[in-house]
């Protein structure tokens, strides 16, 4: 029963943050959506930031799971990285909570939300770094530092699917794979 209330609160907070953003969500609004007293919300979460961080951590776990599901054994690293990035960024774009946070960080520049987006990006970079290190341990020759390469691949991929497409036709996946391959080797 206790867990059910906590889950209801988390679901209500996710809905509120997704609709109204970090700035527009209050513990009172979360309590109303969850149909519990405000004191009940505070019995599980000390403040809005703690509740927000719980939701962020869950979203990151789900996003990394999407990345794991995209991995395909036996294909080159650069292709796997493209598959993983496609899966992670599709999750990020389709997950209403994360989409709203990216929007709020860009448009309103709410400090806790900007820090959250930076945290999410760093989690993605760390994940890619781990993939690169695994390949190095298997004997693959990679000239770059794994962390630098992970950062470079992630940021390049973001630019190719977002900024490039603002003024150019979208690139097909084979072109993106080619660009990533040149960065890896």
From TrEMBL:
- Note whether Repressor occurs among the keywords: yes
Which keywords annotate this record? DNA-binding, Repressor, Transcription, Transcription regulation
Query: A Pfam family in this protein?
Result: TetR_N
UniProt superkingdom: Bacteria
Q: Where is the HTH tetR-type domain?
A: 3-63
> Tell me, what is an example of a GO biological process annotation in this record?
negative regulation of DNA-templated transcription
DNA-binding feature ranges: 26-45
Instruction: State the Gene Ontology terms under molecular function.
Output: DNA binding
Looking at the keywords, is Transcription present? yes
Query: Mind telling me what this protein is named?
Result: TetR/AcrR family transcriptional regulator
| Species this chain originates from | Niallia endozanthoxylica
